[in-house]
Design goal:
- Helix content is 56%, strand content 2%.
- The protein is mostly helical and 223 residues long.
- It has 2 domains: 42 residues, no CATH class; 154 residues, no CATH class.
- The chain has a two-stranded antiparallel sheet.
- Helix 3 crosses helix 5.
């Protein structure tokens, strides 16, 4: 429910679109019509809590390494190309499989043109294309850093979610103590989401719908 509009219904979608179009006409540079997405179709937002974001980044790094290893194993990416890409992205050894995409993004967005023809970059581009990451584009009309745009698109392509992170924690967190700490963090996040779900409902007139317990409702009927 967004502002009393249930966008899973035809009426709710029509009302939401009308409201969105109205706001877009008032501030087209901020709210673009082509960016409209119905709330029920939006992916769940990722928590901005610093410790959670750090853990989620570890999840991203692990997922990239796992996807790359899987592509090599099934033969879609040559082992030599994978090693070149790993070296270019700073993944220097099996002990440090943490990719760094900053330089890649700078070249991709035309900020370091002198490296566009670099053989290692070209190989990395080929690997990224094979992994489905070559389709990522960047928007110059926003203040959002390019690297953040990259990771946001990465999350969409690889379907990176909090639920997926929770299910994979034992694969990318090897220290038992760290695993317990992250599990505690995830439990707090679950409580936070439950609290958000308990937000008051809004009726068609914009009034808050009071939630009455079943016993109280039954008692009211008897009176």
């Amino acid at each position: 429910m967004i502002y009393g509009m249930d966008t899973t219904t035809e009426e709710g979608r029509a009302a939401y679109k009308a409201e969105y179009d109205y706001i877009s006409e008032m501030a087209p540079q901020i709210v673009r019509k082509e960016d409209m997405t119905y709330p029920h179709e939006m992916p769940l937002s990722i928590s901005n809590e610093p410790h959670f974001r750090r853990c989620f980044q570890h999840y991203r790094n692990w997922s990239f390494s796992a996807a790359l290893a899987g592509a090599v194993e099934n033969g879609s990416i040559a082992d030599e190309d994978a090693n070149t890409a790993m070296k270019f992205l700073g993944m220097k050894s099996n002990d440090r499989r943490v990719p760094s995409f900053e330089v890649y993004v700078l070249i991709k967005t035309g900020k370091i043109t002198c490296l566009e023809s670099d053989a290692d970059y070209q190989t990395t581009m080929k690997v990224m294309e094979e992994m489905g990451l070559g389709q990522i584009t960047f928007d110059d009309k926003t203040a959002e850093p390019k690297i953040e745009q990259f990771w946001k698109s990465y999350d969409e392509i690889f379907d990176m979610t909090e639920e997926g992170m929770h299910e994979s924690m034992d694969l990318f967190i090897t220290d038992p103590n760290n695993l317990k700490a992250v599990e505690a963090l995830m439990n707090l996040r679950s409580m936070e989401l439950e609290s958000e779900d308990a937000a008051p409902e809004i009726d068609e007139e914009g009034n808050v719908v009071e939630k009455v317990a079943e016993e109280d409702a039954a008692a009211a009927k008897l009176e």
